[in-house]
Design brief:
This protein is α+β, with helices and mostly antiparallel strands and 743 residues long. The protein is built from 16 helices and 33 strands. The chain folds into 6 domains: 57 residues, Orthogonal Bundle (Arc Repressor Mutant, subunit A), CATH 1.10.10; 64 residues, OB fold (Dihydrolipoamide Acetyltransferase, E2P) (Beta Barrel), CATH 2.40.50; 74 residues, OB fold (Dihydrolipoamide Acetyltransferase, E2P); 319 residues, no CATH class; 57 residues, no CATH class; 108 residues, Nucleic acid-binding proteins (OB fold (Dihydrolipoamide Acetyltransferase, E2P)).
Length: 743
């Protein structure tokens, strides 16, 4: 395992001295001479610059001089700033000569060399690179006098990269004038340039490579599995234990997605609902080869059905019957949960694709009466279950990329229009997550919980201002945002008669919601309206390592859980049933098992959230590439859209039907000089920006206005779409005609 300087520094704590061998263990380094040598080089370097102190062969962290932790943000013109990680303080300008080989995106320690004054930023120099942001690069290979060099596609990385031939690519001339994916071997240091190997030749340019491959390379996402890993998956079977499974093979069940299944039966006074989750924990034991793969990847990276999963295929779950962990609900007539139990089970479900299930409910296809009846009951139950989430709501979008089985990365349930079965099944899975989260908290178990904070009030007010400019009566001065605020606004959007505007306003909400995070402590989940209750991801253990860990925790309860305070206690409780909540006042798990599990999730918590952030970035990139690809053949065509934001340099327009956003730059408005209007004594930058006004003609482009635009150009790799307002083109043409007539 490699390590970064940041990880090395974080391994020191409490002003204690640590021996190199102990540091190796903390970093999880292999017990090898090479690993020890690399660590010793790093320790010596940090000692020389005053961040560590050496005392009799052991090391401790020093506070040293005042240094600022920041992330480098550079422009294509070479201007670089360190954005302070604390969120407070000014951005620090770093001259090119003071970068000390740091690249755009790197996490760095910066020493401030000159204080800021008036409108000038403080200046500084990079003292240490904590984390490199570019372990891989997309670049174009060119033949030069010295041989072949790679030039990064990202123009914020201006330095050429030397290439080394290897067994996979022994002839570098084969990559000449091609787009390649590079793996960094050495970053620039002193007079030595950066060095890399070619991981893959992608094509002649960015547009010739697949969008998924570009995103995978850009973000260094996991690649396909080795043959050995696939063989491990093929042979995966439940680990032999004394665990007795409840046999539900004769009970009707429907498997819809990722081998997730449900059962639903009306009973006197309500419903019996079961959610059957594939028991991946039984087939991928902790410490196994498959577990190591899953822990390294943390999650699947799947986009609209494509990508790389966390685990290789596990055929055991494709058979007629397979092991599951089932959440068995008792619901009243209103859909409220009166009780639930979590049991290890065995099921034999009826398999349907989501499309086939929707056809059954719609009266199409070959009807299986019992299955069709169960699906219809599920759809009927959906609004009752959704009502259990106060102020909760979902979105319908024509082409969502995310493949999450529960909520979207935005925190909301998102569906394609008309997918009533999928929407109802998603609500059932969210209910199962809520039940498992509540059970972990009630038993005081060290689970991993999903939390989400509220969106930034300024962003929400900007969105509400767009709604207000669309004729809706909404407040635009919120100081704190609640889900009820957004739910009320969404209800107003649904009253609009213009379907295109409804879709655009709903879609624009996704951009302001923060991503969810994982935590060892329960917390609120804004998008689902969960307050002061626990919510845990647990229904997709084949695609999220968090779900797999939570399932393993349930297994510990099944096999090691103590159902009474001591062996002398006469009566115990059923640890699998929610009726035990409030009755357990002892440690359910043996101390050694609980301590080991807690240490495991503590070690992985930051990695969970780093991979979640990476997934959201990759999802956004892929969405941008696909929109750019969609617009490339439409250059020169006209479309109608809604002005979705107004800035000093232009305004953005979201196109109807396509949900593609492009920029109309002020420089393209040739018929007049357009600017933000003054309002009293307030400066332009402080007031809400809702319109650009022509200085001479008074013509304006206002937030929320429906206008016609023409696609001028598309930059595929940068995902930039430039538009021009057709009204401006027409006005400019008319003025040109008048000018010619006067001549």
């Amino acid at each position: 395992m490699e390590f970064s300087v940041s990880q090395l520094l974080e391994s020191f704590a409490d002003d204690k001295l640590f021996a190199p061998k102990l540091i190796e263990k903390k970093l999880g380094l292999a017990d090898s001479e090479a690993a020890s040598h690399r660590l010793q080089i790093a320790l010596d370097a940090l000692t020389r610059i005053g961040l560590l102190e050496k005392d009799k062969g052991r090391y401790r962290r020093l506070e040293g001089e005042a240094l600022v932790v920041g992330k480098l943000r550079c422009s294509s013109r070479g201007f670089c700033f360190a954005i302070q990680e604390s969120g407070s303080g000014d951005d620090i300008y770093i001259r090119e000569s003071r970068l000390n080989s740091a690249w755009n995106g790197d996490r760095v320690l910066v020493k401030v060399t000159k204080d800021g004054m008036r409108r000038r930023s403080p200046e500084g120099e990079v003292r240490l690179i904590l984390d490199r942001a570019n372990p891989t690069l997309l670049a174009t290979v060119k033949a030069v006098e010295e041989g072949y060099r790679a030039f990064p596609l990202d123009d914020r990385l201006s330095c050429p990269v030397e290439l080394e031939a290897d067994a996979d690519h022994p002839d570098l001339s084969a990559a000449a004038d091609c787009l390649v994916h590079l793996e960094m071997r050495r970053y620039p240091i002193g007079d030595r340039p950066a060095l890399a190997r070619i991981a893959a030749i992608l094509g002649s340019d960015a547009e010739s490579a697949s969008d998924l491959e570009l995103v995978r390379c850009k973000h260094n996402l996991p690649r396909e599995f080795a043959a050995e890993a696939i063989a491990w998956g093929q042979g995966a079977q439940p680990t032999p234990t004394e665990l007795v499974r409840r046999d539900l093979r004769r009970e009707p069940a429907v498997a819809l997605h990722n081998n997730l299944a449900f059962s639903l039966e009306p009973v006197a006074g309500g419903w019996q609902l079961a959610v059957h989750i594939p028991d991946v924990a039984a087939c991928v034991p902790a410490g196994s080869e498959l577990d190591a793969i899953a822990a390294e990847r943390v999650r699947s990276f799947l986009f609209a059905g494509k990508g790389v999963p966390m685990l290789p295929p596990l055929p055991i779950f494709d058979g007629l019957e397979y092991p599951t962990v089932s959440v068995l609900f008792e619901l009243d007539e209103s859909g409220n949960t009166t009780a639930f139990a979590i049991e290890p089970t065995l099921i034999s479900p009826y398999r349907l694709t989501e499309a086939a299930a929707q056809n059954l409910v719609s009266g199409q296809g070959d009807r299986e009466p019992a299955i069709a009846k169960m699906l219809e009951a599920l759809v009927a139950l959906h609004p009752k279950l959704a009502a259990q989430r106060p102020d909760g709501f979902g979105l319908e979008l024509p082409f969502p990329l995310s493949q999450e089985v529960d909520e979207n990365p935005s925190g909301l349930p998102v569906e394609r229009p008309g997918q009533t079965v999928t929407a109802a099944f998603r609500e059932v899975l969210i209910l199962a997550n809520r039940a498992i989260g509540a059970h972990l908290v009630a038993l005081d178990l060290p689970g991993v919980f999903r939390v989400q904070g509220p969106p930034d009030a300024a962003d929400v007010n900007d969105w509400l201002r767009l709604l207000q400019c669309s004729g809706l009566s909404v407040p635009t001065d919120l100081e704190a945002v609640t889900l009820a605020d957004l739910s009320g606004a969404m209800a107003q959007i649904q009253t609009l008669t213009d379907a295109h505007r409804r879709q655009i306003l709903s879609y624009s909400l996704l951009g302001i919601l923060p991503g969810g995070e994982y935590s060892r402590n329960k917390g609120n989940h804004f998008g689902l309206g969960i307050v002061d209750r626990a919510y845990a991801h647990a229904v997709d253990p084949a695609n999220r390592y968090v779900d797999l860990l939570n399932q393993r925790l349930l297994h510990l309860v099944f096999t090691e859980g103590r159902d009474r305070r001591s062996s002398r206690s006469k009566d115990g409780v059923n640890l699998r049933d929610s009726r035990c909540h409030g009755q357990v006042s002892w440690s359910v798990l043996p101390s050694e098992s609980e301590r080991a599990f807690r240490q495991r999730i503590e070690a992985l918590e930051s990695k969970f959230n780093a991979q979640e952030a990476l997934y959201r970035k990759a999802l956004k990139d892929l969405d941008g590439l696909r929109k750019a690809e969609k617009m490339k053949p439409r250059i020169g065509q006209n479309f109608y859209g809604i002005v979705s934001s107004v800035l000093s340099y232009g305004f953005f327009v979201t196109l109807e039907d396509l949900l593609v956003e492009g920029l109309v730059h002020v420089s393209s408005l040739k018929d007049d000089w357009y600017e933000l209007p003054q309002s009293g004594n307030r400066s332009r930058g402080k007031q809400p920006q809702t319109r650009l006004v022509g200085r001479r003609s008074g013509r304006e482009y206002a937030l929320g206005a429906r206008i016609e635009v023409q696609v001028r150009s598309v930059d595929y790799y940068r995902q930039q779409i430039d538009l021009v307002a057709t009204a401006s083109l027409a006005a400019e043409a008319a003025e040109n005609v008048d000018a010619v007539s006067e001549e």
